[in-house]
Specification:
7 helices; 5-stranded mixed sheet; Immunoglobulin-like; 49 strands; about 750 residues
């Protein structure tokens, strides 16, 4: 069966990749690979660390929706070796010993001499000891002669050097931004999107959850070093003893990051009879990791009793990689919850949120959808739902998929998807509690709400058709979080199989990599009665195995995705979006793509996707010199279907790679655009001090003086540094100074040396 869909057009792959490569070189886009913690409780303010790249001149952090405000506190670039050496030289010039190395490495034990136990440190001269700061063995506090401001600078430098890793496990997340996020007490619960805004662009979005219970946060990880074959232990994290296992009180949300080879443990007290729910968000937070297999953090949850005996375990919840444990406490006592990667990988972006406690959790609803504009009566099953009420979609809800949540007196449940359509609705006989009496007659067009309610069950339906009539049979189940892996079979009256389908790939499925819903479209060969059989591919079944089966004539339609989910344009410049058309039920007509509405200062010539074309580009131009912040844009497509005009709003998306190979379109909530002036010099964050040249370069000798007694001219010595090297050094000094990592004296001295070297 098909697992994932790779978005590629063989004929266009080469030129398209070259085009993207050139665009990327011309204007690198800000990128964020993780946000930790990836959420916060309502009514609290938290510090969040984001790792990414191309984040120079970051100035803003934005969170979608209302009730959440964010601001940037600090930006820490990944330092190059020359910058590290400059910072170390500065500390040494002040008589302060630089840190021995990054604190993420495991502590090195002294090498023992043969037969003499531990080796003694080699004695140093008085001068060397002074430079190394031996008067302060720990090297943690500068000497008393330094001012308070300089002391703070030195502490910043030490912190940067301690956190620095020469070779990070992932360069794509080595630049760090610290932000502050304030969540209002009445902010809406659920997932939001967080982005960073630099002077030249808007980053991709990441999930940021707004939670309802107190939060526990482990200290943020520094950059993980790359693993070297044969020296893997050097990349392992040395966690303090008090961080290995934490004591918590339920209910709460646990936030952590898993390092290579690491297990995080949480100890808590529980009472007999409590129905505890442990839900994990990991892959949901960061759905795809390009350089990891299977392409995401695969967490495992294990629950132990007070004596260390395993009492519950999960590594997948149904078909979803994020585990869930539902546990009824057998007796009073202490329990320990442990989380790790399935194969003990880890680094900064292997992060998680575990919500734990006696909280409402919906394991299933039925039916999985309803007709638009009609009251929906929906039943639910799950844990801790006494007194809970399941929200129903508003009467004016448009066709599509919405989320429903069960509201208990104190807490809200997990959201579950619910489909709304315009076709007539029916129920499978068994789903309504009636006995199965052979094929159930259908009158297409219709959507049947049913269940494969026991292992080995097969639901059979019959309908009348005419020769040449086009018929579609489509299952909507996995896309509504049902564990059903459907198989559809269409037979004629004699029992002959006319069509059979297990999985059909849906480019609009976003993060779902198992396309398990079935689809058949066929022209009937003759008048007569036809049978549709629906079953699970693994012959599984149960109360949660619901489905919606659509049977009827084709409904040609389309959906659009635009990539990327943000746009950066130079002053009075232009940029382009890639448009993906998802064609449904055989629709192959032309689609006109355009900007929706008339955003001030932005124009786009309508682009056309020709008949059957799946991909194209929409060019966007601006007449603006710059925008003070991101401006929301929207894209729509227009087509004529069966003589009527159909308009569909495009969904912004990110083209994400999974496990070095497969690509997926991950939906985003909005499409922000930023216009910037590349010639405008940013205001320095810390104006550099005036530089007075304290010593002059040696004067150029006259021709006579340069002539030796033998009448030969001395060869002029080649310059020690090129102009390019000097310019690079000056840029490094300027950046480090603006980042408040260099003292005025050290900066002046280094710049003067560069001037002399010219």
């Amino acid at each position: 069966m098909s697992i994932v869909r790779r978005f590629a057009a063989p004929g266009l792959a080469g030129p398209f990749l070259l085009l993207l490569g050139g665009a990327a070189l011309a204007q690198p886009r800000p990128y964020i690979g993780y946000a930790y913690p990836a959420g916060a409780q309502r009514g609290t303010t938290v510090h969040v660390r984001l790792g990414g790249q191309q984040l120079d001149e970051v100035g803003r952090a934005i969170v979608s929706g209302t009730g959440v405000e964010a601001k940037v506190l600090e930006y820490h670039r990944h330092l190059n070796p020359q910058e590290v050496q400059l910072l170390r030289q500065q500390l040494e010039s002040m008589g302060i010993r630089p840190p021995d190395g990054p604190r993420v490495r495991a502590p090195k034990r002294p090498v023992a001499a043969k037969g003499k136990g531990r080796a003694r440190p080699k004695a140093k001269s008085a001068a060397a000891a002074a430079i190394a700061g031996e008067a302060d063995p720990e090297g943690a506090t500068p000497g008393p002669a330094l001012s308070a401001e300089t002391r703070r600078l030195v502490e910043r430098v030490r912190a940067r050097l301690e956190a620095h890793v020469p070779q990070p496990a992932s360069n794509a997340i080595a630049d760090l931004v610290e932000i502050e996020v304030a969540v209002a007490a009445d902010a809406e619960l659920g997932p939001r999107e967080i982005r960073l805004v630099t002077r030249k662009g808007v980053s991709n979005p990441l999930v940021f959850d707004i939670g309802q219970v107190p939060e526990v946060r482990r200290p943020a990880m520094d950059s993980a070093p790359i693993q070297v074959l044969g020296k893997e232990e050097q990349s392992l994290r040395s966690r303090p003893e008090d961080e290995v296992e934490e004591r918590v009180t339920l209910p709460c949300t646990l936030n952590g990051q898993v390092a290579s080879g690491e297990v995080n443990r949480y100890r808590f007290a529980a009472r007999k009879g409590q129905r505890l729910v442990f839900t994990t968000a990991a892959r949901r937070l960061i759905p795809f990791l390009a350089d990891a297999v299977p392409g995401w953090f695969q967490p495992t949850l294990t629950l132990y009793d007070g004596r260390g005996h395993e009492v519950a375990y999960d590594d997948d919840y149904r078909f979803m990689p994020d585990p869930v444990i539902l546990f009824e406490v057998p007796k009073d006592g202490e329990y320990v919850l442990a989380i790790a990667d399935a194969i003990y990988r880890g680094r900064e972006d292997f992060l998680y949120r575990i919500t734990a406690g006696e909280l409402p959790f919906v394991t299933g609803i039925f039916p999985l959808g309803a007709a638009a504009g009609r009251p929906a009566k929906v039943g639910m099953t799950g844990w801790n739902l006494d007194g809970a009420t399941l929200e129903t979609p508003p009467a004016d809800a448009a066709p599509g998929v919405v989320s429903l949540t069960a509201r208990a007196p104190a807490f809200a449940s997990n959201p579950v998807p619910f489909a709304i359509d315009t076709l007539p609705e029916a129920f499978e006989d068994e789903a309504e509690g009636g006995p199965s009496r052979g094929p159930q007659a259908l009158a297409p067009p219709v959507i049947v709400n049913g269940r494969i309610d026991r292992p080995g069950d097969r639901d059979v339906f019959a309908f009348r058709g005419r020769a040449g009539e086009a018929v579609v049979a489509e299952v909507l189940a996995r896309r509504l979080d049902s564990p059903l892996d459907s198989v559809l079979t269409l037979k004629d009256a004699s029992g002959k199989i006319l069509a059979r389908n297990d999985d059909r790939e849906d480019p609009g499925a976003g993060t779902n990599t198992h396309h398990a819903d079935s689809y058949i479209m066929i022209d009937l060969p003759e008048d007569g009665t036809y049978r549709i059989e629906l079953e699970d591919a693994a012959r599984a079944g149960g109360e949660a195995f619901g489905y919606r089966l659509r049977v009827g004539p084709p409904r040609p339609d389309f959906a659009l995705r635009v990539v990327p989910s943000s746009l950066a344009l130079r002053a009075e410049g232009e940029a382009s979006l890639e448009v993906h058309a998802i064609r449904r039920d055989g629709f192959i007509g032309r689609i006109e793509v355009r900007l929706a509405g008339s955003p001030a200062g932005f124009v786009a010539e309508p682009a056309t996707l020709a008949a059957g074309q799946a991909r194209g580009r929409l060019g966007v131009r601006t007449t603006l010199e710059a925008t003070p912040g991101p401006v929301p844009l929207a894209v729509e497509g227009v087509a004529r279907i069966d003589g009527r005009e159909v308009i569909r709003r495009a969904v912004p998306a990110e083209d994400r790679m999974q496990a070095f190979l497969w690509r997926h379109l991950v939906p985003a909530s909005d499409l922000p655009a930023l216009v910037f002036d590349p010639e405008a010099a940013p205001k320095p964050r810390r104006p550099a001090p005036a530089i007075a040249l304290t010593f002059a370069p040696e004067a150029e000798p006259s021709p006579a003086a340069a002539t030796t007694a033998a009448g030969t001219r001395k060869a002029k010595a080649a310059p020690k540094f090129t102009e390019r090297q000097i310019a690079g050094r000056l840029r490094q000094l300027k950046i480090l100074y603006e980042e408040d990592l260099l003292t005025d004296d050290f900066y002046r001295k280094q710049v003067a040396e560069c001037q002399v070297a010219k």
